[in-house]
Every structure is written in C-alpha cells, then in structure tokens.
Amino acid sequence: MEKFITTTNLTRLAEELAANHRVLAPVATGCTVTFRRFQPGMTLDLHSRMAAVSAKAGTFPQTETLFLVKRDTTEKKPELIETLPQGKNVVIGGRPCDARGKLMFDPVYGTEKIKDLYFLQRRENTIFITLACDRPETTCFCHSVGSGPADPTGSDILLTLVGDGYVARAMTPAGEDILKLSLFTEAGDKGKEADAKNAKAREMMGQPHDYSSAPATILARFDDMDFWQAQAAKCISCGACTYMCPTCYCFNITDDDLGLNSQRIRTWDNCMSHTFTLEGSGHNPRSTKAHRLKNRVGHKFSYYPDLHQGVMACCGCGRCIKQCPVGIDIRQIVKAAQEYSE
Ligand code: SF4
Ligand code: SF4
Q1: Is the pLDDT of residue 302 over 90?
Q2: Which of 57, 156, 285, 324 is the most buried (most CB within 10 A)?
Q3: Which atom number of ligand 1 is nearest to the Cα of residue 331?
Q4: 223 SS3 class
C-alpha cells in the first residue's frame, strides 16, 4: 500500500499516536538531534541531520527496571513484582539503519533456548515509521553491509521525502492500518518521484566495499596484538561508539536497594570500558584497549557473522565514526585487517 502525507500531517500523526503509544522521534536538543519521547507541541526534526544516538531505545531502553522486590516489616516472604513492558510504541523518523539494528538482536535474545521477554515484548509492540535517507553522509556505509538508504527491512512504513510531504509505503499489516488514517491521501505519481529520489541517494553512496573476507581475515589477525595495538593507539576508552550503536546489545545488571523495597535494573553496557570484563578476582581477560577494540570489531565483522549466516552485526550507520572523539574509523580497521599480510 502506498499513500502520501504532508509534513504538517506527519506531525499530527505523531500527536495522534502519542495519545495511546509511547512515541520516540528525533527532536533538536541543543546543537544535536536525539530521539526523545514525543509529546504534542514538540517539533519533529527529521532532516537537519541524523540523530546522534540510534533509535535503539525503542526496543532496548538505556535503563529499565526488570522487577521490584517489596518487603514489609513482618516475617512475610518478600513480594516479587515483574515489570514487563506494557503498551505500544512507535518510532518515527528513524533511518533504515535504525530499523535494521533491532534485527541483530533477534538471534541473540529471541532463540529457542533464550527468550528475553523484555526485548521481545517491545520488539513485538513497536511500529517503525522510517525515513529513507536522501543525503547519505560520508560516514554512511549501509550499502556495504547488505542494506541501503531506502532499505525497508525492519520497518512497518517507509517514508520518502517528496515536495512538501512524504510518500509512505506500508511494509507490514501494522503499517497498512496506519496508512488507512484520513491524514494520508493517494500518492498518485509521487510514487515515481520517490523511486527516483531513492535511486539517486543510492547512487550518491558509490561502490560498496566488499566485506566478505572480513570474518576470516579478522580471525587470522586474532593473536596479532601489534596490529590491534596500532589500531587502538588513539582510543581513550570513552565508549561513545558503543552507546551510539544501533546493534550493540550488551547490558549490565544492578540491584538498587531502596530500604524495604529494591529493584533490579538493566542498563546498556560498554565493552570498550576496562571494567566490562573485570572479574571479581581482579583478573581481566581484556586488560588493554587493544584487546577491547579487537573484541568490538571482531564481534561485529567476524564472530557474529560466523554464527549468523554471514550477517554483519553492523548496519553501516557510521555513528561510531562520527562520534568518536579521536577519529577512529571502524571501516579503516576492518579494511586494514582485510589487506594485512604477514
Ligand atoms: S558499528 Fe558503528 S557503523 Fe556499525 S552499526 Fe554500530 S555505530 Fe553504526
Ligand atoms: S568512541 Fe573512539 S575513543 Fe571512544 S571508545 Fe570508541 S573507539 Fe575509543
């Protein structure tokens, strides 16, 4: 199904959905754009630049309470209250790399043996209304990892900016239901314009890089710590790359004692931090930043694809490249591993 929605009506749509959904949308925050819980009266900022942090929080919040424990002063057994996510969510204005990012979680958190109900429930109850990119940035490389600036994978609706609005294409029944709202009109010939824009954006990205040898070549470099030390020399272990990333799914668990009551909290974790693998004994299997960078790059371009039918655990959004304060570029590291000879 294909429809058209004006820019003004897209804001109205966000406002209407916010009445009975938790809507996440990009809004200008100081000098950056971030995903925020959208409330009527806020201004969507879909175009000034790609949001600095991905839309991952739609399905995997930065912080969430997993359960509460309530006690009273008697000898009664404490009461355990599970806080599984309730309600429905919508992510408006994420990019194709955002919508695709959540798919990397599936083979980890939704397997036969392991079912992360918190993630799965949000995954099931979150609608993605995605914006095709019409001006790919120099840091974007989604076309090299099996995607592209108008890739609809993982989206319920794909929007393409045409004139004073958007051609909206439904990819799922949930998307079709939204396109039936009266805020949408017939797309007519605008569909062809949208196709031309999407083709132009893809052309602007140029030739993709071939990462097919990356899993094997990175593995071949596994014990070559001179190589990894050279790649990690500039890293200051800030973790910005992991926090911005739509596909990083590691978390930490904290028990927060509130006197008689307490709660178990899950928060995003950061494998670039020294403490990530620090064991109680004091031993740290990834004791240097070179070990940690090797793990981050190796996981995305070697170990994950080896386990999951060659799919890279990177959707080429380029956020880690843009946000790294010392200019470390994951593309250059993988390329260096691919080109490296003994
Ligand atoms: S590794 Fe970097 S480019 Fe790849 S998905 Fe994560 S933030 Fe984006
Ligand atoms: S953002 Fe850059 S400096 Fe910070 S941890 Fe990642 S690679 Fe290192």
Answers
A1: yes
A2: 156
A3: 3
A4: coil
Which residue's CA is minimally distant from atom 2 of ligand 2?
324
The two beta strands, 126-131 and 157-162, are parallel
* Mutational pocket test of ligand 1: of 100, 300, 323, 334, the residue with most ligand atoms within 8 Å of the beta carbon: 300
Cα angle for residues 96, 243, 13 (degrees, 5° grid): 40
Quickly list DSSP for 238-271. --HHHHH-SS---EEEEEEEETTEEEEEEEE--T
Long-range CB contact pairs, 184-192, < 8 A, 24+: 184/3, 184/4, 184/5, 184/9, 185/3, 185/4, 185/5, 186/3, 186/4, 187/2, 187/3, 187/4, 188/4, 190/4, 190/162, 190/163, 191/2, 191/167
User: How many Å lie between the centroid of ligand 2 and the Cα of residue 274?
Assistant: 12
* pTM as predicted: 0.93
Ligand 1 geometric centre to CA of 174 (Å): 28
Would the pLDDT of 10 be above 60? yes
- Which residues does 237 contact at the CB level (< 8 Å), separation at least 6? 272, 273, 274, 289, 292
On whether the CB atoms of residues 93 and 129 are closer than 8 A, the answer is yes
Residue type, 199: A
Tallying the residues shown for the chain, one arrives at: 342
Residue 297 CA to ligand 1 center (angstroms) comes to 10
Q: Whose CA is nearest to atom 1 of ligand 1?
A: 314
